[in-house]
Write a structure and sequence with these properties.
Blueprint lengths: L1 E8 L3 H9 L4 H4 L3 E6 L9 E6 L4 E10 L3 E6 L2 E10 L5 E8 L6 H21 L1
Antiparallel strand pairs: 1-7, 2-3, 3-4, 4-5, 5-6, 6-7
C-alpha cells in the first residue's frame, strides 16, 4: 500500500522530467539529498550511484523502474524508496507525484517541500528564458 503526494505545475512535463531525472539537480530540489555521486548525469533503469543525506551519510542507490517521461522508482540503502510520477496535463501543465510506502507517510513533509522546490526552480528558470 502506498500514499501519493502531488502538485500540479504550470510548466511542461518535458521540463519537469528533465529536472527530476538530472542527478546534478537532485540536491537543489530534494531536501534529504546533499550530494550525488554517479557516472550518469541522467538516470535510466539500472542507474546506480550514491547520495549523501542531510546527516552526512552516503547511501547507495539503484533506479529500479524507469519509463521515459512517466515514472521512475529507486532503492536507497537497499530499501525501496520514493516513486516519481509525471502526468502531462496539456502543453503547459503537468502533475508531479511522489509515491511512498504507507509506513513512510511521515516522509510526506519532505515530499511537499520537494514539490514546492521543483515548482520554484522551474518558475525561476522560465523567467530567465
Amino acid at each position: 500500500m502506498t500514499v501519493a503526494f502531488a502538485k500540479v505545475l504550470n510548466t511542461s512535463a518535458v521540463r519537469v522530467w528533465d529536472l527530476i531525472t538530472d542527478t546534478q539537480t537532485w540536491s537543489k530540489w530534494g531536501p534529504s539529498i546533499r550530494a550525488v555521486d554517479t557516472q550518469e548525469r541522467y538516470i535510466r533503469r539500472g542507474s546506480t550511484g550514491r547520495i549523501r543525506t542531510i546527516i552526512g551519510m552516503w547511501l547507495p542507490f539503484t533506479i529500479t523502474t524507469y519509463e521515459p517521461q512517466q515514472y521512475w522508482d529507486w532503492r536507497v540503502g537497499g530499501i525501496q524508496a520514493t516513486g516519481h510520477r509525471l502526468e502531462p496535463w496539456g502543453p503547459k501543465h503537468c502533475r508531479v507525484s511522489f509515491i511512498v510506502p504507507v509506513w513512510g507517510v511521515s516522509y510526506g513533509i519532505v515530499c511537499r517541500i520537494a514539490l514546492n522546490r521543483i515548482d520554484r526552480l522551474l518558475t525561476l528558470t522560465a523567467q530567465e528564458d
